[in-house]
Amino acid sequence: MSKYPKLTHYVSEIDRLLQSFDKKCQKLSSSQQKEQDKHLALFRLRDIVGRTEAPAKTWRNF
């Protein structure tokens, strides 16, 4: 018996359902869009090295 499990391309029934849902419902609600924008801003602030100006308030407009 192998020490490492074999990789398969198995996709569960639940994963298929979620993938089909994601394809059908691609438009985000306004609150989802605000949350996505907030996390994108956090991602940019975190990954910018040598930032000199103070960051804007992250939770504004949420």
What structural class results from the helix and strand content? Answer: mainly alpha
β-strand percent reads under 5%
Biggest β-sheet: count, sense, barrel?
A: none
Helix content: 40-55%
Helix tally equals 2
Radius of gyration: 20 Å
* Ends distance: 53 Å
Which ranges are low-confidence, i.e. pLDDT below 50, for 5 or more consecutive residues?
Answer: none
How is this structure best described in words?
It contains two helices and no strands. The longest helix is centred in the middle third of the chain and has 18 residues, at 30-47. The protein has 62 residues and is mainly alpha-helical. Helix content is 48%, strand content 0%. It has helices at 13-24, 30-47. 0% of the residues are buried. The radius of gyration is 20 Å and the shape is flat. The termini are far apart.
Provide a short characterization of the protein structure.
The chain is mainly α and 62 residues long. The protein is built from 2 helices and no strands.
